[in-house]
Amino acid sequence: MRVLVSFITGATFGVGLLVSGMTNTDKVQGWLDIFGNWDPTLAFVMGGAIVPMAIAWQLTKSRKPVYADSFPAPPEPRIGRNLVIGSTLFGIGWGLAGLCPGPAVASLLFGGIGGIAFMIAMLAGMAIAPRVRTHLDQYETAS
Amino acid sequence: MHIDWIYGLIGGAIIGIAGAIFLLFNARIMGASGIIGGLVDGSGKSDWQERAALVAGLLFVPGIAAFATGGAQTNVTGNLVVVVAAGLLVGVGTRLANGCTSGHGVCGISRLSLRGIVATGFYIGAGGLTVVIFKHVLGVI
Predict the structure, then answer these.
(1) Which ranges does the record mark as transmembrane (chain A) (predicted)?
(2) I need a surface site. Which of A118, A133, B80, B100 has the fewest CB within 10 A?
């Protein structure tokens, strides 16, 4: 059942991305472009998504998950260097192409060669990320 | 902007419902970069079937829906140097930060996670600055 739930989650997520217009890189870059013809859509998408998620988080306080033993514990509140460096690198890439991981998968079948090239590069980046992390951690220990 | 914001709101709610289903049924956080990254670097070997099923739904269902409704525009730039650089940055960055727009943004902010809020601030700031520099100053994108 967990596998089926996962498939339904991915399918619903993908339909939401398509309906919201987030598979259209013009809308993402248009939202980031505060000095251009600013497009507010992404703010509505974020707002619309956060409401059901906030309700779900509330429900986790009084219930048990259906197909698991317990809900994920709150993450450590530590703001580490990897979080800041990683998010900054991600933001630069997101601004350059207008794609982040979810929409990149959702639009892969109709995004043309550009979308496919982005996906291959993203997977390569994910593959080398553990090595980059180790390198950064060593640097931190040394300094 | 026409009625795009209404589609944004409805689509956003559908995304949020997807995340709510994943959390309430499987007790998992719907973060695209973590789910894909775990398949790529081997850290998600123990539950690879769940990860693969989510990716399959995310890939095929909107793909089929787009074809069924006459195609959808992605407007990805044809500049391969830009898309490859962007893809590498997104891949490395999201894994270093342990999350992207869905994990830190949607799932993190909705539980008022400080990490999610800080991460979102940095990637939106960096993304906005990148668009300003590469579009308005350099004219590359």
Answers:
(1) 41-59, 79-99, 105-129
(2) B80
